[in-house]
Design brief:
Elements (H helix, E strand, L loop, with lengths): L6 E3 L8 H15 L11 E6 L2 E6 L15 H8 L7 H6 L1 E2 L2 E2 L11 E4 L6 H8 L3 E6 L2 H17 L1 H4 L2 E5 L2 H6 L8 E4 L14 H10 L9 H7 L3 E7 L12 E4 L3 E7 L4
């Protein structure tokens, strides 16, 4: 798993946004240790362009960089039209309509979900859209930097949504095992699953993540600390054809067209 990449400033000194892009690149470099360098002729690199951090592949010149965009038109449309409440992830995490199931309520504040495998944060955004507070734990500094940049831009446009996000950089299994924070109501796991190479369903971002980070061979190790930490439930997203995580059968499963959400209910104290 790569821990660092060159950081490229895509704009030039004659561009109006060069100074702001340079300042952002210097901040990201200082926070994460990515060396600011010229664009490589091959391989992966990070770039700052128009105030956005992206992950690019020099070998695919016609492909746009992958960015975390919580305020994308698709995400905001879904939020505005209430689609999130009907999604399987929301039902599985403990919501019923626009409120939490009363039997699951264990805290007086917002329903706190830990997303221990956030990827580009799309599922986490669905959860904050319906009112959850979500702490994302990401072990790759590259992906964590992309998520941090997405939260930064979301905070500018929609601060009330961004305030529901928290981000921790670290190994999820370790962070959950030695948790030192507020009560966690539910934990969401969506470990990277090996896709068939010929599958047309593997999206650009997923292919790039698999090439950059590999799969999650230690995904089974996430379940035990998650079950120990969550006060209400643990939800594991799996392809319909995949075995249950760690050989541990869930309390129930909520199925969608291509995936299922295995739900492990915790004992009420």
């Amino acid at each position: 798993m790569l821990s660092t990449l060159p950081l490229v400033i895509a704009s030039t000194e004659i561009d109006a946004n060069f100074e702001s892009d340079k300042a952002l690149a210097l901040t990201i470099s200082g926070n994460w240790g990515f060396p600011i360098d010229g664009k490589p002729v091959e391989g992966f690199y990070l770039q700052v362009s128009d105030n956005v951090l992206g992950l690019a592949d020099a070998n695919e010149k016609k492909t746009l960089p992958v960015v975390v965009d919580f305020a994308s038109p698709a995400s905001l449309y879904r939020k505005a039209h209430g689609g999130g409440r009907k999604e399987p992830i929301v039902k599985s995490i403990g919501f019923k309509g626009n409120t939490l199931k009363s039997t699951d309520l264990k805290s007086t504040g917002p329903w706190h979900v830990v997303d221990a495998t956030p990827g580009l944060g799309r599922d986490a955004f669905v959860l904050i859209s319906v009112g959850c507070k979500v702490t994302m734990i990401e072990r790759s500094p590259i992906v964590a930097a992309l998520l941090e940049d997405g939260i930064r831009r979301l905070k500018t446009a929609y601060p009330e949504l961004a305030d529901r996000f928290a981000l921790q950089h670290g190994n999820s299994a370790n962070v959950m095992q030695y948790w030192n924070g507020e009560n966690v109501d539910a934990i969401y796991l969506d470990p990277m699953f090996p896709h068939k190479k010929k599958s047309a369903l593997v999206k650009k971002e997923m292919r790039l993540f698999q090439q950059l980070l590999g799969h999650d061979p230690d995904a089974d190790a996430l379940l035990a600390p998650a079950l120990a930490l969550a006060s209400s439930r643990v939800v594991v997203k799996r392809p319909n054809s995949a075995a249950v995580l760690a050989g541990n059968n869930p309390s129930m499963a909520i199925e969608s067209k291509k995936h299922r959400f295995d739900v492990y209910l915790r004992q009420k104290s």
